[in-house]
Amino acid sequence: MKTKKLLLVSICSLFLVGCGEQTSSVLSQASSDSSVTETSQTSIDSVLEASSLLPSSIVQEDSSVVSSTKEEEEKTIIITKAYPGLLDNSNGNINVGDDGYKMNNVFTMMKGTTIDFGSKKTISYDGTDFSSEGRFKLNGAGSTSSKSIKITATSAGILRFCCQSASGSDSSRTWSIAKAGEDPIFTSEDGVSATTPDYFEFNIPEAGEYYLYSSVNGINIYYLDFTQELALGKETGFEINSDNMQKDYLIGDDISLANLLANAVYSSGARMEIKPADLEIDTSAYNKASAGEYQIGISYKTYAKQFVTVKVHAVSAIKSYYEHIQKSSGSKADAILRTPTIYRVNDAISSENIIVKAVTDDNKEMNITSRATITLPDMTSAGKKSIGVKYSNNNVEHTADISITVLDLTLSLDDKEEYNLAVSKEVTSEGELINNVPTFSSIQKAHDFYKSLKASNASITNRMNIHLGEEAYEEKVYIEIPNVTLIGSLNEANHPNTTIAYSLHADSVDASGNAWSTYGSSTLSVNKNATGFKAENLAIKNTAFNTMDEYNNCNSGNKQAVAAVLDCDATFDNCYFYGFQDTLYARLGHQVYNDCYIQGMTDFIFGEDVEAIFNGGTIHCLNRNSTTNGGYICAPKPSSDTSVQVGFFFNNMTITAEEGVTQGTISLARPWGKFARVTYANCTMPDAISKKAYGDTSDKKNPRFDQMSGNLPTNAHFAEYNNTGDGAIKTAVSGGSILTETEYQALVTLVQNL
C-alpha cells in the first residue's frame, strides 16, 4: 500500500504531558507502519463491530489503557473510522444540507456533500482489504463551510484517508486542511489520482476543528480514520446524538434505531462511542397503530435516562412527481429524469421516473415510492388516460393519478424540409389543429409529440419549428431530439415578447431529495442528443431571484440559477437570458449567439468544452452592491489545452453595467479550469470594467482578469483586441494579453472554420 505521509509536527507532539519514553516509541511505531504491536505497556483492542441495533454508527476502535503508576496519567489510543459501508443505506444516497451530517464525534459531512452508496472501491488498510460500499463526495471546490469534511479533534492525532479525483481525467485536484474560516494550514503539492485510490496521512497538530476539502474541484473520499491518544479522566455521563436518526413514521411503520449514536463523556471533555450492546433502548411507548409523538428511552449504566422524540403521522393524501435530477459520477452532467405526458398510440410507457410521496396530517411529505402501486394504461388506443398511482394506509386508499394524452396522429415528414407545431394556452385539446397546425398547451408537450414521431421513424431528420405565442410559459423545458427550433414573437421595440420562465436554484430540492444542482436548475435544458437546436426571439429566465435583495437574503450555500444549459451545437438569434449567478451555461459543442442579451453578476456566462461565439448584442452586469467586487462575467473550464480552439469569443458586443456599480470592479473573466480561453474583440466597455493587473494589491478591487478554483489568469488564455469605451485598455495587464492584428486575423479564421 502506498501511503503519502505529511508530517507537520513530530510524533512526540501527539502525547499528553507525562508520557514516558517507551510509550512514545510504541505510538511512533503505530504511526509509521499503520499497526500497533502489543507490548507490556500498550495494546489495541479489535475494532468494535457495528451491531444490528446501530448498523449506521461509525466504528470506533479504542485501545486498552496505557500503564502508569498514577491513575490520572492513564491514556487511551482511540481510532475513529468513517466510510459509507458503516452507514444505513436503506433510504439511498444522502445529500447533506445546511445542518451537516454528523457521522460520529469526530467526522461530520458539511453541506453540499453527498454520501453516495453507488460507487465502491476496495480499500487496503492495516493489511486488510474491504469494500468502501460507497464514497463521500466533495462536490466541487470546497471551503470550511461547505463541500468538506469536518474533523473534531480532542487532541493532536493522525488523520488517514483514501481518496480519488471525481474526474477520471483530472489528476490535478489537490486537497487542503484548514481551521474554520481560516486559510489552509496545508495544501498537497500534487493532485490526487484520477484512476486509482490514493492514501494519505496528515498529523493534526492540536485539538480543534479541522476541515478536509479540495479548493480546486471535486474529490471522492472512500475511507477516513483519526487516531488520537487521550487521558480520558473519569467517566461522568453519556450523551445521545439522534440528529441522523429517522424520527418521522407513517401509521404502521416499525421504528428504526439506525443512525442513533451514543457517547460516554469524560472529565477531560473527551467522548468515546458506546458499544450498542451496552445501551438499553426502551421502545415500549411507541405505538405504530396510532398517530402521535412518542418517547424512546436510552439508558446507560446508572446515569439518568435520556429520551428521543419520534412521531407517527397519519396520511391525508399522496402526491406523484415525474421529473427529478439524478446525480452524476465524475465530471459528467447530472441527468434530468422525467415521465412524458404526451404519447402516440402504441408508444412505450414506463413508471421508472415516478416518485410518490405521502402528505401527512401536518403537511409533511414522505417518500413512499416503493410502497405505492403504479399501474400503466393501455396504449393501444387514443384518448385521455391516466397512470394509476395508489397507496393504502390505515385502511384508507389514496390516489394521485397522472393524466396523459395518447394521440392517434401521424404526420408525413418525409416530403417536407421543415414541419411546424404550435403552442398556445388557449388550446382545448392536445394536438388540436389550429390553422392546420397541431397545437399543444405547453412547449414540452409539443416537443414530446415530435420525439414520439422520431422514435417511430429513426430516419426522420426534418427540422421541427415550434411556434410560441405572445405569452409567458411557466415551465421547465427539456430538448432531447435534434433539429428543433423554438420561435417566439417580438414587440414593437424588437425585443422578445415570448418568455419561458422557471424558478429553481442549485440547492432547490427535488422530489427524490436531491438538490437540483447548477446543471439541473436550468429553465431551458438542451441535451447532447439535441444537436442543431435553434431559438429565435425568446426571453429565457430563471426566476429563483428577481431582485438583489432576494438573492442576498437566500441562505442557501449554492445560489446558482441557470436560465439555459446547452450540451450540443446550437444557435440563438435575438434571445434574452436573465439571471444573477450562472445565467448562461454554454457547456458543450459549437454554439453561436447573434444579437443576444445576457444578464447577471457572477460567472454568468460559463461553460466547459465549448466553442461559444457571440456576435453583437449586450452583456449586462447587475449591481452587487459592493465597492470592491462588481462581479465576474465569464468562467470557462475546458477539459484540456486542446479540447477547444477558440473557447468564448465575444465580438462587437456592448457591455453595460447597472446604475450603482462601482468604477473598476468588474472582472472580464476568471478561469474555472486552468485551460480557459476567452477573447473580447471590438467590444464597448464601461468604466465599471476593471483595468487593474492581476497581482496588484494597491486596493481590494477586482482585477481585470481574476483567479478561480486555484487557477491563475496568468496561466489561462485571456485576450483582447480593439475594444473601446471607458473600460477599454490599449496596453495589456497581467492576466491577459492584447492581440496583434495578425493574431486577431488568425483567430477570426479559426472562428470561421469551426
Automatic annotation (TrEMBL):
Coiled-coil annotated residue ranges, if any: none
Pectinesterase catalytic domain residues: 451-729
The keyword Signal belongs to this UniProt entry's keyword annotation: yes
One Pfam family it belongs to: Pectinesterase
A GO term, aspect molecular function: pectinesterase activity
Any one Gene Ontology BP term: cell wall modification
Name recorded for this polypeptide: Pectinesterase
Native organism: Treponema rectale
